[in-house]
Specification:
Elements: H1 3-9, H2 17-22, H3 32-38, E1 41-47, E2 53-60, E3 67-73, H4 78-95, E4 102-106, H5 115-129, H6 132-140, H7 146-153, H8 157-166
Parallel strand pairs: 1-3
Antiparallel strand pairs: 2-3, 2-4
Helix pairs in contact: 4-5, 7-8
Amino acid sequence: MSAALFADRVGLAYRTPMEVVGGFLDRAPVPLLDMAAALGLSVDMGASLPAGISGQITHIRRADGDRYHIDVNGQDGAARRRFTLAHEIAHFLLHRAFLDDALTDDRMYRSRLGDVMERQANRLAAQLLMPANLVRVAWNAGARDVASLARTFDVSGQAMEIRLRELGLEG
């Protein structure tokens, strides 16, 4: 019996990981730690990682079910740590089948997964941190200052500039 059918029969609501994520994209800043917890991910935002490493996601195989843990370099600035957490959540959502033990991302968000998957994780991370509908609402309400928008979404100015360009809202 499928998980969805079982959940329906016992009256439980079954939600896919992306449905879980969608429940957190209605406010800024997006509560990433709550999102991670709802996805069943444990997170250490102050991890002691080697220089040049921003974060990693570890697949932990256990008899009672697989678990995933995210470490974010505690030496990085707050906005960088939030982007790293979003990036690692994106790997969980998009590339979980490729996570055998641990996947480590360096400062340039490069890993053994290759450029295509890293770009996918970066793009989804931006979407998680700066949902298009929320950015457009803020923009249409007159928030045109990149620094102010970056503070609202708790991201770096550079990340906000890139997201505005992607959404066609620059200048």
